[in-house]
Every structure is written in C-alpha cells, then in structure tokens.
Specification:
It is a single chain. With about 675 residues, this protein is of the alpha+beta class. It has four domains: about 200 residues, HUPs (Rossmann fold), CATH 3.40.50.620; about 130 residues, Methionyl-trna Synthetase, domain 2 (Beta Complex), CATH 2.170.220; about 150 residues, Isoleucyl-tRNA Synthetase, Domain 1, CATH 1.10.730; about 100 residues, Nucleic acid-binding proteins (OB fold (Dihydrolipoamide Acetyltransferase, E2P), Beta Barrel), CATH 2.40.50.140. About 45% of the residues lie in helices and about 20% in strands. It contains 21 helices and 24 strands. The strands form seven sheets. Strands 17, 18, 19, 20, 23 and 24 form a six-stranded antiparallel beta sheet that branches. A five-stranded parallel beta sheet has the order 3-2-1-13-14, sandwiched between helices. A hairpin with a 4-residue loop joins strand 4 and strand 5. Helix 14 packs antiparallel against helix 15. The protein is elongated, with a radius of gyration of 31 Å. The model has no long low-confidence stretch (mean pLDDT about 90). Homodimer.
C-alpha cells in the first residue's frame, strides 16, 4: 500500500478562518485526502496552527495579554471552523507544542553545525523607551517607495513592496509611538544563495508541479536568491539554541514549516505508527498563492541543507475575491466561515468553492452566483435525478431494485457511462483537477436525467414494465456511483444518499464505485437532498455584507474626524521656497528652505515625482508651521507643505503675502 503525506498551510493564529482560506487550501487538500483513502492508499493528513511571529505578539501587547493566550483563543476558533467544514485531518496541532520547539531547535542546530547558518551584524530599529530591538511589524512609518503612511516594517500594503524596518521614512514604534534609533545587532542568516542552482533544477525537472507555482518560483530564481535572515530580536517564538544568542528567536519562517513534521510526530506518538515513511514516499503541500515563494524556494532549500526528501508537489490555490472586490478583513469585506455555516449546509459551500473555477485561477464569491449554482446544479440537476430515481423505485417497485432484462442499445450505452465514470473522474483527481472532476460528476447527473426522461418509466411501467425496470435499475446504479464519486467533495451528502440506498455500512472504496447493486436490493424512503435557496435569504446575506462594510467605513471616518479645537491648534502660513534640492537616497523627497517672513524653516516633502528642485523654486506654498520636527532619511523637517495626495498638486496662494496666516 503506497503512503502519502498531505499537508495544509498552517493557519496563522491571529484570527478565525474565512472562505478564502477554505477555497485555496483546506477544501482542496481534504478532497485529495479523502479520494486517496478511497483508493486504498495510506494517507497521513496533518496541519497545525502557526502561533509565533510579530502580529500575535503585537496584538497581545495591545490587549494586555500573553501571546500564548491570543494564540490559544484563535486555535480554538480555527479548529472548530475546520472541524465543522469536515476537513478530515489525522492530526491538528500547534507550533507552541514542546515537540515542535524540540524539532525546530534541533533542525536549526543541525544546519548551524553544517555551516549553512552564519552570523552577521546588521542595523535594526531600537526603541529606547521600550528598551528593545523592534522586529519588522513593531515598526510603522512612511513607505520610501510610494510615500504612503502606515507602512509596516516588512511590507507596504499600498504598493505591495517588501520592506526592511530600516527603510521606513519617519519610523515609529508601534507600542509607544516613539522614534526608534538604529543600532547594530548580531543575527543569524541561512545560506539560501548556496542552493540557487539546486532549487532551480528541482523546480524545472518537476513535471507535476503546476504552472502557477513553477512560474512564480522561477521569477525569483531569475532575480537571484539572497541569504535569508533566520532570527529576530524578541521573546515570542522558538529560542535560538546557542549560548551567545540570548534574546533571539528563530524567525517564524525558519520554524513554522516544521509544524508539518511536529504534527506528524504528535500523530505518531498517539498511534504508535512511524510518520517518516509517509513523507519519504510522497509529500504533497496544499498552500495559498501568497506563500508560494516560501514553499517552493525557502522550504526546499532548508530541507536540502538538512538532507531530507523533498516534497513531490506543491498545490497553490489562487485568491478568492468577494462580490467583485478584493477581500479585506480590516474593512470587514469578508465572509467568516463560522457565519456562513450558521445558515447554510457545509457541503454546498464545499461544492460552490470547488466548482466556481480551477484552483490555479483567481475567482470570485458572489451571493447571486452561489444561489444560482445551488438551485440549478444541485437542486434541479443532481437532486432532481436522485429524488426521481428513489421515489419512482419506491412507488412502482416497492423500494426493491428491479432486474436488468434484455437491455437495448440505450440501456447498454448508459450502463457503459456508469462503469467508465470512476476511471475518468479518478484520473482528473490524480492530477489535482478538482473542479474538472466535479463538473464531470454533475454531467453524469445530467445524463441520468436525460436517460430517465427518454425512457419515460412513468409511462413504460404500464405497458412495458421491463423497460421501466431497466431504467430504474440503471438509474439506481448511477445514484450509487455518484454517492461514492461525490464523497471527497460532499461527505455528508454522500452519506445521506448511501443511507437512502441502504449502503451506509459498506466500505467507501473507489474500485467499488461502479460495482452494481443486485436486483432485489431494498432502498429506503427518499427525501429531497438539496433545497433551493430563496431570493429573500440571499437578499439578507447581501445586506449584512454591505452593511458591515458601511459600518467599517463610518468607523474609519469617525476616527479621521477632529474637533474644532484640534483644528484651531494648527497654524498655516504662506511661505516661499527659496532653496530646493533632492534628498540623497530617496526617490521622491525634496529638501526645501521656506521663507515665512518672520523666520526660515526647512521642510522635507515627498514631491519630487512631480516637481524638480528648479520647478518648485520661488513658488508660494501653504505650510503647516507648528508641526513637531521629524527626521526623514536623516534630514530634519520642521513643517509640512500642503499638496493633493493623488496628483501632488501644490496648494498655493500667489496673491497672498509671504508670512500671511491662513484662518
């Protein structure tokens, strides 16, 4: 029996799951795991919550709690979401488990002893008020690329640029709002560049790897891989296991991957079954699009350094948008898993998120389209075929399967459709074509409806009972086949169908999906399996979604509002630019000397994308003059020039006098 090690990207324990998580990662992985179990393969399907890193630590400080308490809160939420969505993990653990700490530290030590990890002194922000170095997300400031405020020390959400904390303009500590110093700090780096050619060869030679993963990874390799910092100055995480590394933890991307292994070890401890044979036979990662780089480059390089078998494949689900807009948890433009399954069956969610588009393409969740697919495909096609088949068998043949007698050409063609289906659909699932396989199952139901209509058993039962018997014998066989083929997608509905067919105690084996039930087999009373969704229900869901967005917008607007007293504190004057030059090291900053009549001040302004020093010289400008001085790129700025945010057009008053106060 072949073994397969299947993993899902570790959900980060600072929030519950939403539909985007399910679509990209957890549902596809579960489909694949369930299918392989039906094929008789020995599957180990594991996951864990990723519980370290700065976002959890920051949230804990803001709430006055311990990071472990924050992670524990969300571990419970995430596990409940995934359990209720029937994600069939063999083990779901946590990266705060002692087993994980031991594995991560031993892994780090092994790479360090082999010379793949080395020390290097780098510049880091240091907060003198908090008395500590500030990891990336503990620092916020202005993006040096696009000039937008609120960029984090690792990333600017506005322009998407990867950043280092020391690159931020006008940085501030996220906890105390103080301006950090830049100090030297000793850190540990992984020799990622050493594995450039090996990683490239592994990716290029992997014929199974999907194009969306392969192409993305090769873009990074083409740019050249750089050594990766593997440690952080903080106390929330796995401590670096070296004597002279006090106060340093292993960077979350240096240990979170090992959550796959530590979860498998926990499973082994519970079952007594060794986990490593599963990994060595065939390891498959299911991840989201946003972490392709980490899994296709950084993780395999770490495994190469350690001397492990590499994963056989990486399946990356693309993004899910919502009603045509990018999903945003901060703006409440999101559907949380727990909210959805309060009102709808889990299986129809699993169906819709799979049928909507291939996994390798971005797709959109639309309430109207969700309703259409459930009503048209599940209720009118699949549900209609099953209900007619079962109710007619009960009505005309007392719930017992008739015999197949002297089948004609139409019967034989339909019989072949049934027996061929598991092979065709299985081939699609083997190649991770989950949507295509599900479409093929719905097409089977459509063919079943057509055959049923063509045979007209409601008429034939009176004048040609043999024909009616053949029709219902074969339609029940197709119902049985569909109940098994659909199990990886909709396990609960599969069980309901099998209960009606009186087959719930039989083994779910893919090879038996086309095995026919014998004549005389008794089926149970049927009931509608898929109910249509009313327009009113969808209207309510859309109103809730848009209402939550409006509430968030109102909250953001209220946060931006200031009182008349606050406004009165601001002092605006007309100034004249009397000297201008670019700021060294910045692509958009100008250093300006501004004459205010009673004094001259220096202002650093992000205007060079529109104005050269010559263009702005001698212009009259509106200046906020009582702004607390700040340093941008090491240059002191004593005020703010007023300009529009989009076009960078200056606010000016050419007829006003220099030094004139604006009221």
């Amino acid at each position: 029996m072949s073994k397969i090690f299947i993993t899902c990207a570790l959900p980060y324990a600072n929030g519950p799951t939403h539909l985007g998580h399910l679509r990209s990662t957890y549902i596809p992985a579960d489909i694949y795991a369930r299918y392989n179990r039906m094929k008789g393969r020995d599957v180990l399907f594991v996951c864990a919550t990723d519980e370290h890193g700065t976002p959890i630590a920051v949230k804990a400080e803001k709430e006055g709690k311990k990071p472990f308490d924050i992670a524990s809160r969300y571990y419970g939420m995430i596990k409940k979401d995934l359990d209720e969505c029937n994600i069939s993990f063999d083990n779901f653990s946590r990266t705060t488990d002692k087993v994980h700490y031991d594995i991560a530290q031993n892994f780090f030590l092994d790479l360090y002893k082999k010379g793949f990890i080395y020390e290097k002194e780098i510049k880091q922000p240091y907060c003198k008020e908090c008395v500590r170095f500030l990891p990336d997300r503990y620092v916020e400031g202005t993006c040096p690329q696009c000039g937008v405020e609120g960029a984090r020390g690792d990333h600017c959400e506005s322009c998407g640029r990867h950043l280092e904390p020391t690159q931020l303009v006008d940085p501030r500590c996220l906890i105390c709002e103080g301006e950090p110093l830049i100090k030297e700090s000793q850190h540990y780096f992984f020799k990622l560049s050493y594995f450039q050619d090996d990683i490239k060869n592994w990716i290029v030679s992997n014929d199974e790897m999907p194009a969306n993963v392969k192409n993305y990874a090769l873009q990074w390799i083409k740019e050249g891989l750089k050594d990766w910092i593997l440690t952080r100055d903080m106390d929330w995480g796995v401590p670096v296991p070296l004597e002279d590394a006090g106060g340093k933890i292993i960077y979350v991307w240096g240990e979170a991957f090992l959550g796959y292994i530590s979860s498998a070890v926990k499973w082994s401890q519970k079952t007594g079954t060794p986990w490593k044979n599963y990994w060595d036979d065939k390891a498959i990662h299911f991840i989201g699009k946003d972490i392709i780089y980490h899994h296709s480059i950084f993780w395999p390089a770490l495994l190469m350094a350690y001397g492990c078998t590499l994963p056989q494949n990486i399946i990356a689900g693309e993004y899910l948008s919502l009603e045509g807009q990018k999903m945003s948890t901060s703006k409440n433009w999101v559907i949380w898993t727990s909210d959805f399954i309060k009102n709808f069956e889990v299986d129809i969610l699993r169906y819709y998120l799979t049928i909507n588009a291939p996994l390798t393409r971005d797709t959109d969740f639309s309430w109207d389209d969700f309703q259409r697919r459930v009503n048209d495909e599940l209720a009118d096609v699949l549900g209609n075929f099953l209900h007619r088949t079962f109710s007619f068998t009960t009505r005309f043949f007392q719930g017992k399967l008739p015999e197949l007698t002297s089948p004609d050409r139409e019967d034989e063609e339909f019989e072949k459709i049934i027996t061929d289906a598991p092979t065709h659909i299985g081939d699609l699932l083997e190649n991770y074509k989950f949507r295509e396989a599900l479409v093929a199952i719905i097409k089977l139901a459509k063919k079943g409806n057509k055959y049923f209509n063509d045979q007209e058993p409601w008429k034939a039962v009176k004048d040609n009972p043999e024909k009616a018997g053949n029709c219902l014998f074969l339609c029940n066989q197709l119902a049985k086949t569909i109940s098994m083929l659909i199990y990886p997608y909709m396990p609960s509905k599969s069980e309901e169908i099998r209960k009606i067919l009186n087959l719930e105690d039989e083994e779910l084996s893919w090879k038996d999906a086309s095995k026919f039930m014998v004549p005389g087999h008794t089926i149970n009373q049927s009931k509608p399996l898929f109910l249509k969704i009313d327009d009113d229900i969808i209207k309510i869901e859309k109103e809730k979604l848009y209402h939550s967005l409006e509430e968030t917008k109102e909250e953001e607007t209220m946060k931006k509002l200031i009182s008349i007293d606050d406004f009165a504190k601001m002092e605006f004057k007309i100034g004249k630019v009397i000297a201008a030059e670019t700021v060294k090291g910045s692509s958009n900053l100008l250093k300006l000397q501004v004459d205010l009549k009673d004094k001259k001040i220096q202002v650093v302004a992000g205007l060079s994308q529109k104005y050269s020093p010559e263009d702005i010289l001698n212009k009259k400008v509106v200046v906020l003059v009582n702004l607390e001085p700040a340093k941008l790129f090491g240059v002191k700025s004593e005020g703010m020039i007023l300009a529009t945010s989009e076009s960078l057009s200056l606010l000016s008053a050419e007829t006003a006098d220099i030094g004139e106060i604006i009221k």
